[in-house]
Amino acid sequence: xxxxxxxxxxxxxxxxxxxxxxxxxxxxxxxxxxxxxxxxxxxxxxxxxxxxxxxxxxxxxxxxxxxxxxxxxxxxxxxxxxxxxxxxxxxxxxxxxxxxxxxxxxxxxxxxxxxxxxxxxxxxxxxxxxxxxxxxxxxxxxxxxxxxxxxxxxxxxxxxxxxxxxxxxxxxxxxxxxxxxxxxxxxxxxxxxxxxxxxxxxxxxxxxxxxxxxxxxxxxxxxxxxxxxxxxxxxxxxxxxxxxxxxxxxxxxxxxxxxxxxxxxxxxxxxxxxxxxxxxxxxxxxxxxxxxxxxxxxxxxxxxxxxxxxxxxxxxxxxxxxxxxxxxxxxxxxxxxxxxxxxxxxxxxxxxxxxxxxxxxxxxxxxxxxxxxxxxxxxxxxxxxxxxxxxxxxxxxxxxxxxxxxxxxxxxxxxxxxxxxxxxxxxxxxxxxxxxxxxxxxxxxxxxxxxxxxxxxxxxxxxxxxxxxxxxxxxxxxxxxxxxxxxxxxxxxxxxxxxxxxxxxxxxxxxxxxxxxxxxxxxxxxxxxxxxxxxxxxxxxxxxxxxxxxxxxxxxxxxxxxxxxxxxxxxxxxxxxxxxxxxxxxxxxxxxxxxxxxxxxxxxxxxxxxxxxxxxxxxxxxxxxxxxxxxxxxxxxxxxxxxxxxxxxxxxxxxxxxxxxxxxxxxxxxxxxxxxxxxxxxxxxx
Length: 686
Description:
Layout: H1 2-14, H2 27-41, H3 44-52, H4 54-78, H5 83-94, H6 100-107, H7 112-138, H8 146-170, H9 172-178, H10 182-200, H11 202-208, H12 210-233, H13 238-249, H14 253-263, H15 272-295, H16 297-306, E1 325-326, E2 329-330, H17 333-350, H18 354-360, E3 374-381, E4 384-392, E5 398-406, E6 412-418, H19 440-453, H20 459-465, E7 469-473, H21 487-490, H22 495-502, H23 505-515, H24 520-537, E8 541-551, H25 553-564, E9 570-574, H26 580-583, H27 610-614, E10 622-627, H28 635-651, E11 658-663, H29 671-685
Parallel strand pairs: 6-7, 6-8, 8-9, 9-10, 10-11
Antiparallel strand pairs: 1-2, 3-4, 4-5, 5-7
């Protein structure tokens, strides 16, 4: 957004005449579009925060409607601005928080819920607070139409927001489809407002604009610093300080320009501060977000110094901790990791065993008395038969699977395929084997997923063409083992919406299994162990030539299975390997719960880290690929894990059996990676 608005300002200064035909009266409709988009983006939860955390909202709004208005007046007097610019700067200071502040707060890792709540609340208060504050601060110098400004804000702010909320309520599916475009529309609206105002006043701005640019920059920076200092003085957690800082410092400057154009037409330059602020605060906001993440308090200390308020800051220390979590991590997570590291070093000196890992996996599902394997349906393909089969995966469950069998061969090598997670639950086995005899929606879903994650290749079908028997089942919660949904649950929803609705139920499943003495993560591993045993026992399979492949969560499943099952003789794991040190951070996806539960086994981390468990597979032929640009798995953790595993394979005299490689890829299983995996199995399984 900052780049677009800045470009509009530069163009308006260079060729102002090109836009002279655009009348300032279009500013109001443009602002209305911006506010309409805000209404469509708001959620019921955004208003609940007002009642669930009233203290935070009150603190934020008091800061919003005192700091910026007073700073505006002080800076205007300090720089001896004329009446027109004085009005413009004060209007900016008296406006509510801008919608861009929510994005900046998110990027700065601040309290996003507080930011959204403050924006919504200050905007709803604006019809009263903005005219009243402008009248109090400049009413003696110029005439202020308080009633007119109140009505203007109602028309161009409140009513469009209500309209946006109404559209969202009446047409939720339409809103869901278009909401990703709303930020772009908002950016265009702000850019046009800046274009119109600056082009109309370009000559005056070029002649004497430096002073207003300096004032606007100081106004914004001092607001950011004062907002943070208020949070500090009140001993608020760092995330809340950041949110209040950004909310106070970033204003709805488009509204300021609109009000100046309508109610202070006799002072054309009054609209300039709002336009300049629109350009500057998007630039400063992006910089502030980055500095907050990288430098923390250092940035705000500089802002405080610029306001002349650093005195006594160093002595202001909270008497005790006032919050227990930072993001989703306990405040003592570093100490917890250090303690865990000491435990791991002690246990690793003795060496971890399979028996210890199995002990952490708690209640095991009883092995099936027999598999009762039967073919449900089949389809002839190029050189192999695709079968849909059913078998007993344990004594309590019978599951469906795809089995691909090459023609006219016996004692064949076999591969167990282990599908990914992806927060995509409507398909499982279909992510790796081309489905048949299913609804067209399932086929389309599988095609889209295979294109996005597997470079358009059904890995199972390719392996079958190369002469491998291939088995792929659904993990618990995916495909045919997904939650039971009623027609009402599915009616009118897209595949994406259905998957989103299932996401939170992962935690419920994990919680329920923990309460019954088991764990979801362990259950998935047990199912994989039983599936490998089933595959190895099939009459057409050579039990000494059974391997497994997995991508993402499937990769985790692959190395876990190889570590714990004698039926697996070789494994390939694509895009899942790291250690606790690098995964358990404030930024990593692994700390968010939800999907992580499918790969968590309580207690296992007390005896071994991920690479140590994977090393139980040594000296089997084993392959690990990771992406250098995979944000889920930091490269430092991947390399540290690879080092641990190489030591384990060397200790078994099998260093050539472990293949590790970092690819210049994101979280993706490309055709080039697949070819090297196929070559690996050809070398070790045929």
